[in-house]
C-alpha cells in the first residue's frame, strides 16, 4: 500500500513538499535546444503524475521506473491521468536522448530537465551525499512520484530511508489516482 509511504505534514518545518501543497512554479527544459516548460502552466487544469529520478540512464530508472509508467498508460488514462512528467537534474540533451532510448515518443510520458536543480530545491527533494557525488557527479533529485491535480499535490511518495523505490513506481501511484 502506498498510503504508509505518503509524506504527511510534520509539526514545524517539513522535510519536503506535502499533500495539499501547491506545486512550485519553475521553468524546466524540454529537448535540445531546450524549450522552456513552466510547471504552473503545464499542470493547470490537468491530472498529472510527476516523477523525479536521480539520473537518466541509471539502472533502476531505465529498467523499472520509466518502463512501468509506459506499461501502465492504459490504466493511468482510465484513472483520468493526462500526462506523466519524468524530471531529473540533467540537461535537455541528456533527457531527450534518454527519452529516445526509452521509446517515449507518442506516449503520455514526457521527459523534462531540471538543469540547475531548481525544482528539486523548490520541493526540498535534493539528493546530495558522498555516494551520489561519487556515482553521479553532484546533487541530484530524490526518487519520488506525486499525483498533481491542477497544481495541487494530491499524493506523494519519496524513496529513501524506510520507503522502498517501489513506492514511487506506477503500480503504487495508480492506487492513489
UniProtKB/TrEMBL annotation:
Family per record: Belongs to the peroxiredoxin family. Prx5 subfamily.
- The chain's coiled-coil residues are none
InterPro entries linked: PRX5-like, Redoxin, Thioredoxin-like_sf, Thioredoxin_domain
Q: Which organism is it from?
A: Durusdinium trenchii
Q: Where is the Thioredoxin domain?
A: 17-149
Query: What keywords sit in the KW lines?
Result: Antioxidant, Oxidoreductase, Peroxidase, Redox-active center
What role is this protein assigned? Thiol-specific peroxidase that catalyzes the reduction of hydrogen peroxide and organic hydroperoxides to water and alcohols, respectively. Plays a role in cell protection against oxidative stress by detoxifying peroxides.
Q: What is the lineage of its organism?
A: Eukaryota, Sar, Alveolata, Dinophyceae, Suessiales
Protein name as annotated = Mitochondrial (Peroxiredoxin V) (Prx-V) (Thioredoxin peroxidase) (Thioredoxin-dependent peroxiredoxin 5)
Protein origin, superkingdom: Eukaryota
